[in-house]
Amino acid sequence: MARCITVGAAQLGPIARDESRAKVVERLIAHLREAKRRGCDLVVFPELALTTFFPRWFMTDAAEIDAWFETTMPGPDTRPLFDEAKRLGLAFKLGYAELVEEEGRRRHFNTAILVDKSGAIVGKYRKMHIPDDPRFYEKFYFTPGDLGFRSWPTDKACLGTLICWDQWYPEAARLTALKGAEILFYPTAIGWHPEEKDEVGAAQYQAWETIQRSHAVANGCFVVANNRTGFEPDPASDGGIEFWGQSFIAAPDGHIIHKAPQDEECVFVEELDLGAVSTMRHGWPFFRDRRIDAYEHLTRRFIDSEEGGL
Known about the structure:
Elements: E1 4-11, H1 21-37, E2 42-44, H2 62-66, H3 79-88, E3 91-102, E4 105-115, E5 121-126, H4 138-141, E6 151-153, E7 158-161, H5 170-178, E8 183-187, E9 191-192, H6 197-219, E10 222-226, E11 229-233, E12 240-244, E13 248-250, E14 256-259, E15 266-273, H7 275-283
Parallel strand pairs: 1-2, 2-3, 7-8, 8-10
Antiparallel strand pairs: 1-15, 3-4, 4-5, 6-7, 9-12, 10-13, 11-12, 13-14
Helix pairs in contact: 1-3, 5-6
C-alpha cells in the first residue's frame, strides 16, 4: 500500500513594512483553507512569514528591532492561525522571528516550527547558517541556531526543516536526512537586487535551484523550497529586493514535480509518494557507501593542502 503525504507550499507576495501581523495572518489563513480544500495534509509557509523581510535594512533602536520578533507562539496575532489549522485538521510549518529571554539573556533567532493538526507545536528549528550580504543583513539581527539539525516523525512522514541560507550547505541536508527526514523543507526569502538582475539574475536563480535539487538526489529525499515573490523596497535607500518566487518541489531523483510562477502569490499542492524515497536510497545507496572514517576534516574551517595528500 502506497504511503503518501499531500503537501501545500505557500509562496507569499510582498508584505508591506506597515502591514499588521493580523493582516498577514489573514493571508496565511486563506492559504490554509485553499490547501485544505485541495486535500492537503501539511502547509509550509516561507521564512519570516509574519513580517516584511526586515533584515534588508539596518535598525539601531533596540525597541524597534524587538517589535519584529515574537516572544510567544502562538501569541495574540498568531492564535487565529493555530485555531483555524486545528479546525481544519491541517498541520503547518511557520517561519518567524523569535525573541528568547531567559536567565538574563536575550537572543534573536530565525525560526521555523512544525504544528500538528491538533494545533500543538511538535518541532522547532532555528536557522543554523546566518548570511551577511547587502540587503540580507541577518548577522546583525540573528543568533545562529542552537538546536542543531532536526527531523520529526509524524503519522504521514519524517520531516526535516532547514531555512534559506542553510540550503547552500550539503552538510546541513545530509545531517538532517541522516536523522530520518524523507522530506527536506527550505522555507526561504531570496531574490535579486533589481540593479543586477539583468546581468546575473538567471545564473543566481539556477544555482539556487540546482543546489537544492542536488540535495534531493544526494540524500534520496523530496525537497520543498518555498519562497517569497514580488518587490519589497529598502526604506533606507532607493534599493530593495525583488524576490524571485519560483518555489518548487523536487523528487528524490532531482526532477522538478512542480514549480510556482515567478510573480504570483499562491499555494500549490502535490501528493508525494514516499515509496520513492526508499526506492532511491536502495537503488543509489549513497548513505551506505560513505567513507565516515575519512571525514574528520569536515569539522575544521580550513585544511592544510599537505594533509591527507596522495
